[in-house]
Structures are given as C-alpha cells and as structure tokens.
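Predict structure. Chain length: 569.
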Amino acid sequence: MNKPIYILGTGLSHNGSAVLLKDGKICVAIEKERITRIKHDGGNDTVAIQYCLDAENITIDDISLVVQCENFTIPSRDRFKGKRIFAERPNPEIITISHHLAHAYSAIGTSPFDECAVMVIDGCGSPLEQYLALNPEEKCNIPEHFLATNEMLCEKDSFYYYDGQGLKTIYKDFSPMAESQKDMLSLPTTCHSIGGFYAAVSHYVFGNMDDVGKLMGLAPYGKTGVFNMEAFYFENQNLYVSQDWKAFLKNPSKGYDYFKEHFSYYADVAKWAQEQVESAILKCITSRYSLFSHPNLCYSGGVALNAVANAKLQDAQLAQNIYWEPAAADNGLALGCAFYGWLHHLKMPKFQHNESTCFGKKYIEKDIEKAIQAAHYDNFKISHFQLEDELLKHCASAINSGKTMAWFHAESEFGPRALGRRSILAHPGIKGMKQHINRNIKFREDFRPFAPAVREEKVSEYFEKGRNSPYMILVDKTRKKYSDILQNTTHEDGSARVQTVNKQWNERFYNLLGYFEKESGIAVLLNTSLNRRGMPMVETPEHAIALFEETSLDVLVLENFVIEKKQYF
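Prediction complete.
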C-alpha cells in the first residue's frame, strides 16, 4: 500500500486556519479561533496545525508539503509571532503563495467545475512587491502604471481563468494602502477596495469593527434614495473609491444607545452603502467578464460573503453557473494553499469535492460523556437515545413546543456559517422568538436576522426564486403566504438568507427538518450559529456545555445525548 500524500495548507493572516489534504481530498480543517476562543485569531499557526495532525492521528513527519500564506511577509519555518511547529526541522518543504492566489485555489479546489473563470474581491491582499517576488513571471500581466508607482500597492481584485491544468491571470487591480487616521471614515485596508469601504461605513454606523457583516443586516430597515452620492467610480478597468461621500456623513455613532436613538438614520446609511457595494461588485465583475467570459464562475474573497449582492450577481446571469466559496474570507486561505500544493505544485489531478464544508474532527460518545460528567448536571434532565428516529422526533417536538435548542453534531463547519453541525435551532413562526434569541442567547442587536433552513427540494415552495443555497450565502424572498409562519427568519424587507439542506452531506439535519415538518406542518427551521456575541462558534462538547449554561437556551443536543434545563421537564 502506498503511503498517503498529506499536504498542509496554513493561513497566517487574521482569521487564521489550517487544512490537511490526504491524497488530494480534505480530511480535516480548522479555524484557529475555534480552538483559542479568540474571534478572528491569526498569526502563529501551531495550535491549528496540531489540531489537524491529532485529528488524523499523524505527526508532522507524515506531511509531504506545506503551503503557507500571509499578507505582508513570508514567514520563516522557525518563527512567526511565536515558535512554529516546523522549528528545527529540515522537512517538510514549505512554499509560500500570494493572498489572492490562495483565495482563488480555495474556490477551484472545492468547486464542481473542471474549468472556470475565477473572481477574487476583498479588502486587501498581498503587496505588489511581495506578489512579484513570489511570482516574477507575472510582471508582464501587471499594468505599467502600477509598476511605475513608488507607493505601496496591494491586491484589490483579481480575475483568472482555470483551464483544468493551471491558472492564468486575466487582470489584477491594485490600490495604495489607506493612511492610518483617526477619522472614523478612513478605510482600514487599501484606499480603493470594496471591502475597505464597507468596513469604514460599518465603523461609522456601529462605532466598532466587531462584525462588519451586520451592516447588511441593518440595510433592509433603511430607505433607498435618502443619500444621493456615489462611492465608487471606474477608470480604465480600475475601480476607485471616491472621497466626496465622506462629506455627507457627519454623525458617527457614539455607542449602541446613540445608535438606537438614531436608528432610522443609520439604517438609511446602511441601505445606501449596501446598494453602492452591490453596484460596484456587478460593475467590477462585468468589466472583468468583458475581457474574458466563461459559463462557470468561481467567486471568493471577503466581499463574496455579501449574500444580497450575491443574489443580484446570480440574477444578472453573467455566468450560467456560479460557485461561491463558503469560506470566502481569510479563513479560507489555508484551503487554497493546500489545493495549490496538490494541483499546481505537485501537478496532481483534481478530485470532485463532495460539497461539504464540515471538516472538523469527530467527537465520539466517550468525549461527550466525559464533558457531561465534568459539568455535574445534577439539576438537569439528561437522556441518551439509542435510536435515531426517537432522538429526532423528541427534538422536533421540543422545538415545535417553543424551546430553543443547541444542536451539536459531527464535524464542525469550516467558515462563518452554521449549517446544522454547530447550530442554534428554533421555531420560525412563534411570535417573539427572534427577539428572545437575539437578547437572551446571542446577546446582540435586535435587528440582526436569522436564517431559514429548508430541505433543498422544498425551497421553491417557501421562497420566490427557489435558489440552491447550501452555504447560506444567497438571499431570496419569502413567499407572502408564508411571511407569518416564517416571521423569525424573514427580514424587514421580506428577504431571507436561505440555507438549502442536502441529504448527502447533512443527513441528520435533513432528517430533523422532516420530523419538524411532521410535528408543525412547516418544513423550515430557524438556524443560527452556536455562539453568542463576541464568541467564535463552539468546537468541543465543553464549549457547547459552557454556552448552554450561560444563556437562556432550553435544550442541548450533544450527538445522542439530550440535556434539558429543569424548568422544562
């Protein structure tokens, strides 16, 4: 029997992660924050790498190749913000790739396409100098005006063609880094990036940078046309952020109480910013497609997580088939590094990915029993189910009766969305449920939306477009006749960030939806990530138990164990 080929991909920017391929297929992957419990944790990669090695029951000596990525430096094998696991070892070989190249291969490796165009849009990628040091042959593809400048330029968007054998650069846009200023509207990335603009407006609206994605959740409460200024413009294929719009925004948030007092104003700002971003994304990708078009498009980079813009991109029909990389932000860099190592460096064939994003390690019953025993749950009811059907029927009944449920099952998701492995589940139609979860479980703003999870074959029944959205990365509109029974998963403007559940790689969650439909007559569940504000998604049974204890969650399901708080039995 041939020895397996293990390739390790590691991302060392913020949102650090590690990914292990075994003979070209993902066998385990983890985001560093899930282990350290520090949101967006990055830098030194030793703990994430060790998690992957332990999960696969191998050592660093079994690794054939390491591929790494970090925005501004080429990390040494010995140290990067602390001693690395490779220190004092001559092997394995370590190679470094640029930021957008890693984003691109993260989509290529997991997409269903043999050939495709690839679009990457984010806040800030590799500096031009580093990019050319790593890819000197690419100098001929860089516009002359970028090469002539003395400023530090960084990747802003990149457009490629993957022909099944390799990746060809079609166009790359660069931008100077924004100057570090105390101005709340200064971009925290490059001067002219869509991601940087979105982050700056989020900072203005919320007074912090905790979660820029919540700007998209606020936008439906706002009105179109309140602000009449353009944030972006194009010149010679390049996208720029105007400075003029800043003069119109003169009331930055002074904290959450101030935000609530001026809610309609900030909602209007969010609506304007969201619409500006949607327009910029469509113009940018349309411009790139004028240079080269292909029926298949892969899309990655942090901007590709904007579910509203993604739906409009799909409706624009620039490409027949679009694949959005589920871990499109920097947590996906390690994924791209690993696939680059397999496909490009080793010149090995691409294997069809099974569509799953659940790459964490499996916690066996012994692990769960140990965690429960350590918690000393004398005052809680603990049940252990031997039969799957009895477990799912019990859970569906509990949710239908109005209980909130922490749902912990199998390998954790890789990426920002809970897809039925580390989820909080609830009834989509019980009045006040959304507010209860936001206030007493998630401890976050009341306007934040929740996603509806629905079996993929039922999506057209409840939602107008019936989009296939297994990664919760596209919005749809709830059909009006279901707006009341889906009130907790339907946003202010009637939209919903839908998750279509696939039986192939999400079987238990798929079956739970079936049991809930039998109980309630509704084939949809409210699904949100198993965490609270400021906390990464839970990874271990111990994490889940701790969250259960400190919030108003009613039921905790740990594989076949069900724990219920005393007042509910």
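Summary: The domain at 365-568 is CATH 3.90.870.20 (DHBP synthase).
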